[in-house]
Amino acid sequence: AVRARVAGAEIAAVRTARSDDSGHRLVFEVPFERFAVAADLGGIDPERFAAGIDAAFSLALTFPGGESDLRIAVRTIRSTLRATTLGELSARPLPAALAEVRLVPVPRPGRPWQEPGSLDADARRRVRIAPPLPVRSIPDVFLQDREFTRGAYLALVEFGLERAIQDVETRPQLVHAADPLAEARLHADALIPADLRDWTAGGAPPVGFSLERPVAGLDAFQAFTAVALLGLLIGDDPWMFRLPLGCELEVAAVGRGADAAPGGRLDAQALADLVARGQDPGLWPLSHAELMLVGDVVSAELGGSFSGLDGGLREWVSDLPYPTGGVEGRTILEEWIGDHRTHVERARQLATGRDSERAPLELRSFLRTYAVVRGDATPREAGAAGPRVGVLHALQLRRDGAGLLPGAVDPRLRDCGFRIAGGEAFVQAVRQRW
After folding, report:
1. Phi and psi dihedrals of 200, rounded to 5?
2. What rounded mean pLDDT belongs to the chain?
3. What is the mean pLDDT of residues 336-348?
4. Residues 77, 97: contact at Cβ < 8 Å?
5. Pair 155, 97: CB distance under 8 Å
6. What's phi and psi for 144, nearest 5 deg?
7. Mean per-residue pLDDT for 263-291?
8. pLDDT tens-digit map of 19-77
9. What is the DSSP string of 88-107?
């Protein structure tokens, strides 16, 4: 067996792969700490690695016929993560609309995250309820490069529900614990928005209707189940994906400029032209191509880009809602929101019915009833006064999309969609795959 000796430690090859020239490639997993010692990089702040530090380390290969000493030159980089698609990750064939869904890595900020400071106090009160809390320990994550499209959503409902029928034990995990429909949610009629259901059931769609436009009109329970179905379909795990946290969208919106304002530089005239025609329901929501056209695009640090982070739809996120009025428990909630891992875990506990008993009953009831969307919902609000604030804009809506009157639907729901995120477990799985 071939082994490698690095900084005094012997490491066995973890796998062998055939190379293009009919030979074999041995793969060794060298712990970073061991590599840092061998390359004399110990004690250097990892944040400096992004600048590209040239180094070299010695490696001795031992095999039955002897030993070979190698000296290998390296240059540090920010991360080895790269964009991927669902087609690359799935072990089973997918329809094209799903296979082409693309996720782009967003590297951790490396410090407690403060929301971009582009708003004065008065402007902020108009778009955010929760206080500006720093968020600790945001890890590397993956975010979809655009809002989930109608075509991808219809394919997901069809193939995801087919997969759910085969896995009875997993079905309870596909539905939010607060969803009044429970497992009755796992039917196409309970997942597909009414207008999209009408247009795809033989009705005449309006002029401009396209499956490339984002799916809209979803409530929080529909978005949650859609993401869970996707995880089951791609990785046999309902928790493989989740809805993003708002702070993750903010990190993505900043892009390569650490102090930049959220989103891209919008072309006001191009946006006005789209707004003028956007009153036609067939031309709304704006497609990825249209958002790119008006400048709603931001470059990702590790390659690729994101659209819809400044305008586009309001997007459902995993954030716990923040109560107003006299609801008790804000201190506990701020403690949860201020730590990324805790926030993700508390949102998951809420979704599975394992609410924390530390929270007062009134707060738990509030968390089950309301959810958060981020975004500006262009073009319907494009003419509003004041600066554009992209994903800093947060609204709290009922999870079921109910309006103020009995039986009514919140009119803001028509502009609500989502994009998917892959958290720490997903990042680890992707790294192992590569």
Report:
1. -95, 0
2. 86
3. 96
4. no
5. yes
6. -65, 140
7. 72
8. 555 667 788 888 878 888 898 888 777 667 767 788 999 999 988 888 899 999 988 77
9. HH-SS---HHHHT-EEEEE-
353 φ/ψ sector (left φ>0, alpha ψ -120 to 50, else beta): left
Q: Which two tokens stand for residue 306?
A: 């994101």
Q: Which two tokens stand for residue 396?
A: 């709290």
DSSP 146: S
Per-residue model confidence as pLDDT tens digits over 127-176: 778 888 899 999 999 999 999 999 999 999 999 999 999 998 999 999 99
Q: Is 358 exposed, middle or buried (0-12, 13-18, 19+ CB in 10 A)?
A: exposed
Give the separation between CA 332 and CA 318, rounded to whole angstroms: 17
Q: What single-letter amino acid sits at 289?
A: A
> Residue 128: what residue type?
R
- The letter for the amino acid at 313 is L
Length of the chain: 434
CA distance 406 to 361: 25
Name the nearest CA neighbour of 124 among 394, 398, 416.
394
Nearest to 377 by CA among 389, 361, 362: 389
4 in Cβ contact with 31 (< 8 Å): no
Residue 375 has pLDDT above 80, yes or no: yes
Looking at the predicted structure, is the pLDDT value of residue 117 above 70? no
Q: What is the DSSP string of 200-212?
A: HTT--PPTT--TT
User: Measured between alpha carbons, how far is 271 from 264 in angstroms, rounded to an integer?
Assistant: 12
Q: In the structure encoding, which two tokens stand for residue 404, read together? A: 């103020």
| pLDDT of residue 221 exceeding 80 | yes
Q: Nearest to residue 215, comparing CAs of 188, 190, 196?
A: 196
